[in-house]
Every structure is written in structure tokens, then in C-alpha cells.
Amino acid sequence: MYRVELLGESAWRTAHPEQQTEANLGAAARAYFETLGLEPSAETLLQHVVAIGHAPAYGRENADALMQDWMRIPLAAAADVLARSAALGGRVCNLLAGCGSAQEGRMRLGVLSIVGGEPLDASRDLAVSAHWGIAGRGASPCLRAAG
Known about the structure:
The chain is mostly helical. It has helices spanning 9-15, 27-36, 42-53, 56-61, 63-67, 79-96, 122-125, and strands at residues 2-3, 144-145. It has a two-stranded antiparallel sheet.
């Protein structure tokens, strides 16, 4: 059994090479890929949406529409721009799913300390016992082969 990564079109192909898959895209999306000279890919399109949707400038410029759950994502006019956007979106997906490198999103925000000046005990004060977003199963949504 395999768990397929978020946006796992390529992971599914790796885990199940004997099965043919086809992108679940409408006619307009297929036509968009055709104008760029690319094979239709739901994974590429979704990763582009994630990249744009998580861009701070997009959030600022479209705040009203986003508050109404009305995302309008601009499409890249060139294949190389779509590829770069999708690559960035893939990194964002992996970081959100806990699959990316800790180095990718690392930045220093401040110094961790306890109010009152007590020394920090990492095993006690930083223990994570909740399994948020994974239904308490303790498993990562990244691709994994089981038994």
C-alpha cells in the first residue's frame, strides 16, 4: 500500500507504473496547456495555484475576493513561467505537508525563552503530542511504502 503525496500525480505513476492515468482537467484547462505547447497536467496546474495563492502580493491585491472565497488565479503566459511557478508551488505543498526540507523555509524569528526566566527544557516545553491535520494517525502525507 502506498500513501500518495499531496498533489501526487508523479508519485502515483511511480507507485503504480502499470496503470495509465489521465489528468482530470476540463476542456479550457486542456486548451491552456495546448497553447503553451505542454502536456496537460493537473499536478502542474494545482501547484501553480498553490504558488499564486500563497504569494503575499496576491493576498494583498485580492483580499476582498479571498474573504468571499472567490479566488481568481492568473495563468502564466509562457511555459517557462508556469514551470517555475509550479516548482515553487510544489515546494510550498511539501512544506505545508511536512515533507520539505527544514532548510527551505528556515528563517530566524527570535530567541525562544520562557516567561519568568526559567531555563528551557526542550523535552518538556517543546514536546509535540498532537497530530494536527493527519487524523491522529501519526503518519506523514508524503509518499511512503508500507510493509
